[in-house]
């Protein structure tokens, strides 16, 4: 039970990071980007690629399984994932925006997600891979509860990112512009906001968070080309549960989905675990379609 | 006559270039002049203002501000040509606080200028200061209009355009808003506004244009327009007084 809760919080925080990016792009760009989950996979593999290319392994930073190279690789992966997101926006979404309806964009994003997944499959192969083969010893923290140091790191990093993003949205001009744009794009332009610039930053931030989420997934689970495919439903469930555009909502939504997934195994066969986010999504849409916290970018109040 | 501040010449515009709503409208606004556009619903009044503000595409004709051509100016660059626009509906960000609304309105300014001018805005609109940390969504219609105007003035525009500033306000609020606009003109701001409330608009503005079916119909000093029979027949008689 305790272990299931800890595992749930862990996978929940990874879902949360991905869902933050999804909720921001959904709130600001106003369409459901099905390719967002593939950005998570892309980020995870880009970090693996950089790690393989640089090769220089400086040894892990005890007690974690990874060292400076993975941190550097993650930073490069964030840049590469942001670049991919901007390229997709420029090549696929930009020509569709304004001319086609939102559903066309959604289907476009479906196509993009398949394409990205296949590219990853072509380059990296379909087998499971790991950033490091170092074996980690789980630390017993309580009777019946063992946690890996990497998992503690994942939780801590998620917390730091959420707080930083909140401060960014509340205190900076760009954050304020993003919240304004999410509510009313035309009024934002009337107020002097160059919405193209803000949209670009939205992609960069969302994609960077997706990359981090992917690396943490690779670190605590494993790397597979289907990461995005498996995260797609949990990400949407978390984002919609928390209210589209609501950063804190996405975090809470992510934790709820993660916990529900891992606790469900106690009652239902593990094979049905993947259906849990789907059930949550259905329930939310049925009972409270705007999410628990009716969403606007940045505001949980 | 002094050189006009705003000169709109033969403008054709609409939501789509192939479906124009206004068909060659011309008008001028002199510095420190208050000009009203009236006309029945669908006359293209709001369309013209939105076209000048760069929100709707202009397919023919020109817009000049202080002699400089600004046709199809990107909307977010309005402040750079000393122009501001207050939309009719949804003219404040309801999910942001009053203070945040003003900060967004000061996007074009440096941070120091923004802080200084927001303070000045609060002096002019003390009601807003009281609610500065409240969400704009809790404000009444009149307070929202005040916030929207205060926001538009942050960039110290020479031309302020308003789309139906009296819409949805109580008669008391209407006269309050109009008094403030009149006071603004006295400080040197030129105003171009669309009004459904023809009586009140004719009473305070210098000149009035009457549009019908996307074209200029008649214009002149507001005082003369109030007694002009053609105006009453086009506008008041055409079932235009919806409110």
TrEMBL record, chain A:
GO-annotated biological processes: D-alanine transmembrane transport; L-alanine transport; L-isoleucine import across plasma membrane
Main location: membrane
Subcellular location: Cell membrane
GO cellular component, one term: plasma membrane
InterPro entries per UniProt: ABC_transp_permease (IPR001851), BCAA_transport_permease (IPR052157)
Membrane topology: Multi-pass membrane protein
Annotated TM spans: 12-32, 39-58, 70-93, 105-131, 151-169, 197-219, 231-256, 263-287
One term of GO molecular function: L-leucine transmembrane transporter activity
Pfam families: BPD_transp_2 (PF02653)
Keywords, comma-separated and alphabetical: Amino-acid transport, Cell inner membrane, Cell membrane, Membrane, Transmembrane, Transmembrane helix, Transport
Family: Belongs to the binding-protein-dependent transport system permease family. LivHM subfamily.
PANTHER family, alphabetized: BRANCHED-CHAIN AMINO ACID TRANSPORT SYSTEM PERMEASE PROTEIN LIVH, HIGH-AFFINITY BRANCHED-CHAIN AMINO ACID TRANSPORT SYSTEM PERMEASE PROTEIN LIVH
Name listed for the protein in its UniProt record: Branched chain amino acid ABC transporter permease
Species of provenance: Nitratireductor pacificus pht-3B
Automatic annotation (TrEMBL), chain B:
Keyword annotations: Amino-acid transport, ATP-binding, Nucleotide-binding, Transport
GO molecular function, a single term: ATP hydrolysis activity
Domain ABC transporter positions: 6-238
One annotated GO biological process: L-amino acid transport
InterPro entries referenced in this protein's UniProt entry, alphabetically: AAA+_ATPase, ABC_transporter-like_ATP-bd, ABC_transporter-like_CS, BCAA_Transport_ATP-bd_LivF, P-loop_NTPase
Similarity comment: Belongs to the ABC transporter superfamily.
UniProt protein name: ABC transporter
Source organism of the structure: Nitratireductor pacificus pht-3B
């Amino acid at each position: 039970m305790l272990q299931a809760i800890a595992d749930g919080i862990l996978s929940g925080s990874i879902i949360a990071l991905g869902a933050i990016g999804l909720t921001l792009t959904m709130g600001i760009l106003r369409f459901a980007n099905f390719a967002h989950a593939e950005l998570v996979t892309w980020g995870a593999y880009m970090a693996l690629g950089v790690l393989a290319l640089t090769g220089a392994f400086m040894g892990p930073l005890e007690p974690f399984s990874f060292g400076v190279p993975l941190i550097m690789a993650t930073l490069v992966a964030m840049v590469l994932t942001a670049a991919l997101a901007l390229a997709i926006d420029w090549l696929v979404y930009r020509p569709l925006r304004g001319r086609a309806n939102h559903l066309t964009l959604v289907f476009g994003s479906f196509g993009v997600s398949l394409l990205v997944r296949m590219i990853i499959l072509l380059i990296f192969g379909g087998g499971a891979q790991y950033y490091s083969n170092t074996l980690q010893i789980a630390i017993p923290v309580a009777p019946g509860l063992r946690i890996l140091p990497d998992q503690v790191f994942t939780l801590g990093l998620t917390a730091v990112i959420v707080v930083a993003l909140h401060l960014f949205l509340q205190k900076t001009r760009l954050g304020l512009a993003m919240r304004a744009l999410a509510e009313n794009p035309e009024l934002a332009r009337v107020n002097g906001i160059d919405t193209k610039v803000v949209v670009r930053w939205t992609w960069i931030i969302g994609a960077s968070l997706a990359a981090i989420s992917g690396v943490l997934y690779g670190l605590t689970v494993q790397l597979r080309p289907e990461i995005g495919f498996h995260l797609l439903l949990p990400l949407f469930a978390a984002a919609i549960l928390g209210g589209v555009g609501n950063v804190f909502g996405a975090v809470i939504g992510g934790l709820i989905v993660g916990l529900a997934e891992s606790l469900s195994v106690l009652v239902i066969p593990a094979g049905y675990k993947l259906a849990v986010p789907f059930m949550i999504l259905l329930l939310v849409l049925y009972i409270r379609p705007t999410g628990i916290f009716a969403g606007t970018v940045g505001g949980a109040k | 006559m002094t050189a006009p501040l705003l000169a709109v010449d033969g403008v054709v515009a609409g939501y789509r270039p192939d479906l124009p709503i206004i068909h060659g409208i011309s008008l001028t606004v002199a510095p420190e002049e208050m000009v009203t556009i009236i006309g029945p619903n669908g006359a293209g009044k709001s369309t013209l203002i939105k076209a000048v503000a760069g929100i709707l595409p202009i397919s023919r004709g020109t817009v000049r501000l202080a002699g400089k051509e600004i046709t199809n100016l990107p909307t977010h660059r309005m402040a750079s040509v000393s122009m501001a626009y207050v939309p009719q509906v949804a003219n404040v960000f309801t999910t942001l606080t009053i203070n945040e609304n003003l900060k967004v309105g000061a996007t074009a300014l440096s941070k120091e200028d923004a802080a200084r001018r927001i303070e000045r805005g609060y002096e002019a609109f003390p009601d807003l200061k009281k609610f500065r940390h409240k969400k704009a969504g809790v404000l009444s219609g009149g307070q929202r209009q005040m916030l929207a105007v205060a926001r538009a003035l942050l960039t110290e525009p020479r031309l302020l355009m308003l789309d139906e500033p009296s819409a949805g306000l109580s008669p008391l609020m209407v006269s309050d808003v109009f008094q403030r606009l009149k006071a603004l003109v006295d400080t040197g701001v030129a105003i171009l506004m669309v009004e459904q409330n023809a009586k009140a608009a004719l009473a305070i503005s210098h000149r009035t244009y009457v549009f019908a079916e996307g074209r200029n119909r008649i214009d002149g000093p507001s005082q003369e327009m109030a007694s002009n029979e053609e105006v009453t027949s086009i506008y008041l008689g055409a079932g235009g007084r919806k409110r």
